[in-house]
Model the fold of this input.
Amino acid sequence: MTSPTLVWFRDDLRIADNPALTAAAERGAPIVALFILDEESAGMRPLGAASRWWLHHSVESLRARLAERGVPLVLRRGAAGVVVRAIVRESGASAVFWNRRYASAERAIDSELKSGLRSDGLEVQSFAASLLFEPWTVQTGAGTHYSVFTPFWRACQALPAPRLPLPEPQLLHPGSAGVQRIVASDTLADWNLLPTAPDWAAGLRETWTPGEPAAHDRLREFVATDLPLYDQARDEPSAGATSLLSPRLRWGEISPFSAWHAATGAGGSARFLSELGWREFAWHTLFFFPNLATANLRAEFDNFPWPQPDAQALRAWREGNTGFGIVDAGMRELWHTGHMHNRVRMITASFLVKNLLIDWRIGEQWFWDTLVDADAASNPFNWQWVAGSGADAAPYFRIFNPELQAKKFDPHGLYVQQWAADASPLKIVDLGLTRKAALGAYDVVKRSGRP
DNA sequence: AAGATCTTGTT
DNA sequence: ACAAGATCT
Done:
């Protein structure tokens, strides 16, 4: 019996353009695939509810597709460092391959495992798969990381172009099926990832098909029909011109390399590529600032005089009952579909922080819980961008006016009509007064930064 | 990835 | 009178 190669899947729930899986296939030995639900290791952020829903269906899709190719996907729950060692023992694996992760708790787990397994004599390899540019390869002239997007993205584009995506590896080796030891697996149902009592996921089911095949279908459709109009239409939430790739990228059902080359091959859109760039920049930032979700990137924002949060206002924001059509439409779209148009994310976030004066971390946590694309880097990065506390952030005095934004980007009210036709017109705040209050609070931050 | 207001240019 | 552009916050 040949000792197998263990491929540990994490944020890369795909078969195509999966360098770890391809390298395992080339190694020739049978493959055992593993996915761990790690709710135990120190520092792991618990998945939000919408993320758990997506994960369930995406893992199910991956399991079925690997099974068709003769590769068992073992599911286990527990601290990854312990589980991987157990699976190595149980399977008799002599090599362990995975694609890299970039958040700090995950990196700590992975590097400890890599050195531990290697000193046990195993072959361990990690691969670049989830980012176009490894964070440490993008450096300023001074050898530091970037804190402003434009020079960051310029530096990325001066690096060698992103590699071509890898084709699906050949996984079925004649005679290899069934020769592996059987390794016990949880069932997905054991993990209780889906909501019950109540089952609030009907809107998610209507909206999304998780899994690699649907991700590629969407990419093809986006490139063929939406990309030509992208630059002009991406900011109109009723236009349906955005890629809808965010949850697929977050879970790695499709790689950024596939998205990059599909877009450039179709004539490209500098704007769409730069959106991929913002995703890169968010991960670049998280890599060098691991507390991005909890700490202000600009330390002077620690002096922001947040008032006691208004529980009623917060609830109205969450439920889409603020009386501002575009805010309410966005929050309802989010609740129903687990997604919100990018422009509207900025508007609703600005409203929470700058009109309700509620700490960006509270909004970030709500998005974390309700977005199917909740991403450990992009979500806190973008909240800090809106709040003004982040990297290359919106200046503190840039306060969106939701009514002007609606006039500009939803001039016919189609988006508001779609999501908030029945919303109450009663406005919970005065935009002018709350704007002044926010400017006053930011002034405190500004003055605190001076000697 | 902005808003308010002031300035300049065109009817 | 109004719009586009510059400037400050």
Observations:
- Strands of chain A lie at 5-9, 31-37, 73-77, 95-99, 123-127.
- The CA atoms of residues 7 and 33 of chain A lie 5 Å apart.
- The mean pLDDT of chain A is 94.
- The domain at 1-129 of chain A is CATH 3.40.50.620 (Rossmann fold).
